[in-house]
């Protein structure tokens, strides 16, 4: 069961209008029928895919103020210790998740707590696998602080085809693990920076499910 993200109605409407216009053009301008019907079918499938792409699934989360769950569906591509230059300016444990074109692109709070930092960064649209995409691409940086004062930073990073990041964060906003925090449209990546003593629960190559996969325990 899923709903469609409320911030994507405009994107879907534009895609549908373009597809319908192309369908009309194909119907009136292209012969024979053997070519016309497949083209219209492809456009209809495209309309369905764009709608389905912006889905927000209903899931139960085991997350809490100590259990960190995945922000997104995808594949773990990085698990390492890395320097975080924007907020902590110190080494942290880093976990990166890559979302392909068929993954759910809605994002969910990984931790119960409060937003202590939020900043949107306009930028480029390098491939999400590119090492510098974390810093150079369009992205949002969000820090959540739990009741014990522990903080986790995660970035919503646009990919090559993404042109808009939606984030509901603002400083002081309470967060509940597993509730939607935004969406990245058309291809993207999530970087998570955790305390050095966090107990990482995933490894490179593992598939994650937003809300459900436990990334780490604090």
> Class by helix and strand content?
alpha+beta
Which architecture name of the largest domain does CATH use?
Answer: Distorted Sandwich
CATH class of the largest domain: Mainly Beta
Computed over alpha carbons, the radius of gyration is 19 Å
| N- to C-terminal distance | 31 Å
Main pleated sheet: 8 strands, antiparallel
Mean pLDDT score = 88
CATH fold type of the largest domain: Glucose Permease (Domain IIA)
Number of strands: 16
Into which percentage range does the β-strand content fall?
35-45%
Q: What is the count of structural domains?
A: 2
Strand order of the largest sheet: 11-7-8-9-13-5-4-15
Q: Based on CA inertia axes, which overall geometry fits?
A: elongated
Query: Tally the helices: what do you get?
Result: 3
Helix content: 10-25%
Low-confidence segments, ≥5 residues, pLDDT <50?
Answer: none
N-to-C SSE series?
EHHEEEEEEHEEEEEEEEE
């Amino acid at each position: 069961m899923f709903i469609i993200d409320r911030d994507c109605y405009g994107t879907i409407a534009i895609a549908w209008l373009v597809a319908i216009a192309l369908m009309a053009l194909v119907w009136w301008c292209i012969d024979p029928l053997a070519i016309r019907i497949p083209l219209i079918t492809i456009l209809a499938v495209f309309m369905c895919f764009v709608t389905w792409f912006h889905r927000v699934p209903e899931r139960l989360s085991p997350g809490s103020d100590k259990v960190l769950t995945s922000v997104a569906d995808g594949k773990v591509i990085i698990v390492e210790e890395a320097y975080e230059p924007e907020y902590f300016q110190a080494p942290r444990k880093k976990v990166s998740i890559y979302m392909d074109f068929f993954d759910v692109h809605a994002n969910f709070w990984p931790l119960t707590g409060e937003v202590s930092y939020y900043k949107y960064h306009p930028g480029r649209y390098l491939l999400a696998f590119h090492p510098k995409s974390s810093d150079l691409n369009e992205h949002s940086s969000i820090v959540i602080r739990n009741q014990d004062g522990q903080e986790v930073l995660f970035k919503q990073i646009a990919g090559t085809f993404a042109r808009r990041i939606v984030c509901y964060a603002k400083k002081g906003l309470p967060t509940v693990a597993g509730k939607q925090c935004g969406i990245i449209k058309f291809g993207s990546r999530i970087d998570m920076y955790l305390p050095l003593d966090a107990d990482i629960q995933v490894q490179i190559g593992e598939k994650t499910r937003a809300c459900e996969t436990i990334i780490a325990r604090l």
